[in-house]
Amino acid sequence: MKARLTLPSARWRGDQVARQNLLIAGATLLAASMLLVLFQAVALQTELRRKLTVQANMLAPAASQALRQSRHLLAEQVLAPLSAAPDIEQALIYGPNGLPYARYARSSAEATPTVPQAGTHTDWLAGSASVLKELPGGGALLLRTSLASLYRSLAQFAAFTMAIGLCAFGITMLMVHRTRAAAEQAENHLHYLAHVDPVTTLPNRHEFNDALAYALMRADRQESSVGLLLLDLDNFKVVNDTLGHHHGDQLLKLVAERLKLILRTTDIICRMGGDEFVVIIEPADDAREMASVARKILAVLAKPFALDGHQLYLGASIGVSLYPFDARDGATLTRNADTAMYHAKHQGKNRYAAFQSDMALRAQRRLRIEANLRQALQDGELSLHYQPQIDLRSGRIAGVEALVRWQCREMGELSPGEFIPVAEESGVIVELGRWVLHSACRQAAAWHKAGLLDTLEHVAVNLSASQTRDAGLMDDIRAILHETQLPHGLLELEITEGVMMDNVQTNVELMQRLQETGIHLSIDDFGTGYSSMSYLQRLPIDQLKIDRSFVHDLPGEGEAIVTAIIAMARSLKLKVVAEGVETLRQVEFLRKAGCDNAQGFFFARPMTAAQLTALLLERRDWSSRTVMLA
């Protein structure tokens, strides 16, 4: 689906504004033209009067002399040169008695013009202008001119002004059109940015909300169903952090292209942001169809992505909800799909889950856990328990692992298996991990000062995936060790194999910096990932920790794997710890296979710092629990 790119309402508003602008511009130009013509008429009239006055002043002395001498012929001769002035229609010299004494007239002029008052006068209707100059000693001189030349000049000026006005109006129309087009283009571009994801060119969250609302309205009218699939890409953050945001964007484009290939043209694919996509299936027949679409998506995303020489593998956790069975509105339908998606992710990723009513209760519980966890860090509800790691040869306590526990005031005791994933997803894990590291180092420093760690090799603390990606991790560790005064060699940091393999190069560099400070390093849950001998040779580690799932099958199905892990560790001169040891038979097998240390309920459950302090003071010999049968 493409986001809507045309804006009818915007175009209508643009046309209306353009018309208003053109009307205003046209009226302004017309008014300006009329004013200019009026000013020009006044200017031409003023110039004409000035010329008449100048001519009258020039003829007045000679006309006055002719009257004083009573020389009629001389008076006629005074007016004769006016024939060279084509605009002068008439000229009369009046005697002191007010009667015409001498006259000049063109053939078209009236014989006896009306005598005006002294001064200059313009008769626009008659098309003439006149000036009456009173002569010294009596009499007057009248000059009368035609306005034809003034009209011609005014007409030419008006035509010129009109031409300029029309040109200006044309330019104005062009500018208005261009401005309107630019504004419409800008508004469409803003609309595009507001409704389309710039990376994948898919509709974005805003457009999704509109599309879902329309789909639900159509479903109500047609009494049909609408399906919603919410996808969250697994391991995308690792790719983004490892290869950079540019490669991450390219990967998102490839994902979008694959989704388009397998879905119908009527289905709507949107990118919600980050690594989340949503698909609207309309119409959706039933839950079986939704499950089929989800499986197709998982299959197409399971294939490797080729990106700049890298073979990248992604999965997806998909949540499915169906309207109107799972919700009666778009917001609830989306929320339920999101709840189902988180359920799928918690079940192991790269799978789908259809929404069920009890999921909402679990989602609400998860939100309560997240809210309480943030408060628990401030209120001191968290505590550390410690589980001993026993040397299978000597029977002494070789080390302890710090394990976080939470007694919530509102929800009671919560297991790490429940609140640690919530901490990871909500981002609280970095702050929680910092608190665990600081508390464990402070307690270990107290034991060290009391002389209780003489036989211990280390105190182990787990690092989460988010902590390994935290740029401030090294500074936090240095600050904590400096504050607690714990010898660096007594601290061991455990990183799970899965986290290690997510970003090998970056984690190797991190582990090298940690090892340079004297801190011991261990790979936790070993055997569950994809490590190989070549990878292990690159890692600056001191120890492998066999995952409890393999120890549980000892002796039996897990023997071959455990034996291979121990042999590989021996070849790399690494120590081996087995976790989850619960039976004597497991202990016997591990010791015979060459495992160094073991921890589990067979020896001791996780205990408080006070309980472990008492145990260390006993300096108990655990050899009786590790004696092998003869």
Percent strand: 15-25%
- Total strands: the figure is 21
Shape type: elongated
Mean pLDDT: 81
- Termini separation comes to 74 Å
**Cross-sheet strand order for the largest sheet:** 13-14-16-17-18-19-20-21
Q: What is the CATH class designation of the largest domain?
A: Alpha Beta
In angstroms, what is the radius of gyration? 50 Å
**Helical content class:** 40-55%
Based on secondary structure, the structural category is: alpha/beta
Specify the biggest β-sheet.
8 strands, mixed, barrel
Which residues sit in consecutive blocks of at least 5 with pLDDT less than 50?
A: 1-8, 626-630
Helix segment tally: 20
Please give the domain count.
3
Name the CATH architecture of the largest domain: Alpha-Beta Barrel
- Reported by name, the CATH topology of the largest domain is TIM Barrel
